[in-house]
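Quick one, tokens below. Sequence please?
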């Protein structure tokens, strides 16, 4: 099993969630996040005063997947999240050794 973690633009959340559900993903965790990458935030003008926004709003999406469907889920994420503009986000994959469903005690793929 693998844990796919993606940091994405907030405005893409619903579109990505719908695409993943259409693919067959049954569960995911979505959290609000803030951060910056190469763009290092941006400057804005408010009432004539310029100020810098260092941390941009982002969404963190986490999905547990089996090894066989990982590449397909990555393709769905990449194609849906891509705008071609800096700040589209990052995706990383982590190997998961064990998953346990707390309610039933199921382990492994049965717990996903």
């Amino acid at each position: 099993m693998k844990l796919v973690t993606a940091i994405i633009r907030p405005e893409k959340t619903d579109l990505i969630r719908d695409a993943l559900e259409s693919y067959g993903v049954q569960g995911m965790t979505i959290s609000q996040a803030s951060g910056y990458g190469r763009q290092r935030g941006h400057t804005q003008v408010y009432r004539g005063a310029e100020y810098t926004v260092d941390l941009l709003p982002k969404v963190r999406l986490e999905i547990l997947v089996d090894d066989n469907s990982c590449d397909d889920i990555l393709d769905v994420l990449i194609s849906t999240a891509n705008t071609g503009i800096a700040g589209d986000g990052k995706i990383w994959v982590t190997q998961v050794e064990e998953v346990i469903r707390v309610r039933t005690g199921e382990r492994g793929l049965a717990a996903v």
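The chain has a mean pLDDT of 89. The domain at 2-111 is CATH 3.30.70.120 (Alpha-Beta Plaits).
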